[in-house]
Amino acid sequence: METIVSKRIKLDLEPSDNNDGENVQISNNWRIKSILSDEHIEPIKRCFVYAGIVDDKKFIGKAMSELCQSMPLHGLNFLKRVHQSKLLLCTLNQMLDFLRENHEDEIVKKIFMTENDLRTASDQMTTSLLKLYMTKRGISLTVVNFLIKKIEITSVAAQAPLLSWQHSDVNNDWPTKFHPNKDLEKLYNGTWFTEQETIFHVQIMEMCGLLRTKLKREVCGIAIDPRTKSIVAIGFDEIDRHPLMHCAMVLIDAVARTQKGGAWNEFLVENDDLAIYTNFNDEFDEYTQSGVSKFIRKLITTENPSITFGAERVKTAVENRQNYTDIDVNGDNLSKYGPYLCTGYDVYLWREPCLMCSMALTHSRIRTIFFHETQSTGSLCTLTKLQSVKALNHHFQVFRIA
Ligand SMILES: [Zn+2]
């Protein structure tokens, strides 16, 4: 599940006035791990089914056609109906529902209240229950008698496997239909990123670590435009100034400044040489550079001259209309329409964001979140996994670099 970083990266910054001569060393024996939904990392749940063991294979075709028509498996269609000489008849839960709803005999209803009651029933009772169930469902008597000669209760997958490891696990019980999703497999196996990409992501997270130490903040966050690998904005936690100024919130605000916005400019923006947050008001396009102050930029470029900064210019309504006819239909929204909030950006946070920050990142249409440390109020893997909530109208990928 992890990508191993084999190459060591040098990212030591020049000691600054704020540094007090600290020598920051971060081990980068780091790996990148995808934070997948629980349904991808937990074993598949099982349920019990009745299987009829058949001795004459000539009847299987006829039995199958009646079963598929009159006794569908409701939600278990990923299971193969025939396995060796066994035919899957119905789940024990389907039988319980049937007894609750249809059986006129109150005594039988009271005897079979749970799945376990059915599992411990005598062979004779099981056979008569199945005979009743199948004939009520419209299976012909010939097929019923053929299928209930010998009955077995067996455990099968209750949900379709999503990954190869789950498929191999459940297939030992009963075969399932399965088409692997290549992207999911790569995320699970830790082969989603190339070695070059891994090195880049680790390098940016190291940068977060070094900046937070040098600037004496708990948390640092960096937003990157993945198309250009350019640093769009940098933010730190500023909760001493305002309780809502968590790192991710400050970072989103810094991204907004690169689009001529920003709600906290009055609180945060300063104009001296050591300013951590600045707003460039030049008449040209410097607003696209206002996510990273000149001071921070200098700290980074001292040792990493190849790093670039800045966002793409915001497109005007007229430009958007003109571009509309020749946009790349396969491109993402960032390449189609230009910057809008954090659309298409990758964010690197030293610490797992809380629920407020995670929701703010969701609303701002982030593409990927990388974080280093977990925290007790973290909402991407500790308290919950916001990225797994299907009801949200925007989704993003989450990775831990540690
Ligand atoms: Zn937060």
Provide an overview of this structure:
- Helix content is 35%, strand content 15%.
- The chain is an alpha+beta fold.
- The protein has two domains: 2-34 and 193-401, 3-Layer(aba) Sandwich (Cytidine Deaminase, domain 2); 46-158, no CATH class.
- The strands form two sheets. A seven-stranded mixed β-sheet has the order 1-2-11-10-9-7-8, sandwiched between helices. It has a four-stranded antiparallel β-sheet with strand order 4-5-3-6.
- Residues 1-26 have low confidence and may be disordered.
CATH class of the largest domain: Alpha Beta
Residue stretches low in confidence (pLDDT < 50, at least 5 long) are 1-26
Strand content: 5-15%
The CATH architecture classification of the largest domain is: 3-Layer(aba) Sandwich
Heteromolecules bound = zinc ion
The radius of gyration computed from the alpha-carbon positions, rounded to a whole number of angstroms, is: 30 Å
Tally of DSSP β-strands: 11
Give me the CATH fold name of the largest domain. Answer: Cytidine Deaminase, domain 2
- Helix fraction by DSSP (H/I, runs of at least 4): 25-40%
| Largest sheet, spatial ordering of strands | 1-2-11-10-9-7-8
Overall shape: it is elongated
Helical stretch count? 16
How would the blueprint of this fold be written?
Layout lengths: L1 E3 L26 E4 L3 H4 L4 E8 L6 H11 L11 E2 L2 E6 H11 L3 H6 L3 H5 L3 H15 L3 H7 L3 E7 L6 H8 L10 H8 L5 H20 L5 E6 L4 E7 L10 H11 L7 H4 L25 H8 L15 H8 L8 H5 L8 E6 L3 H9 L4 E6 L23 E5 L1
Parallel strand pairs: 9-10, 10-11
Antiparallel strand pairs: 1-2, 2-11, 3-5, 3-6, 4-5, 7-8, 7-9
Helix pairs in contact: 11-16
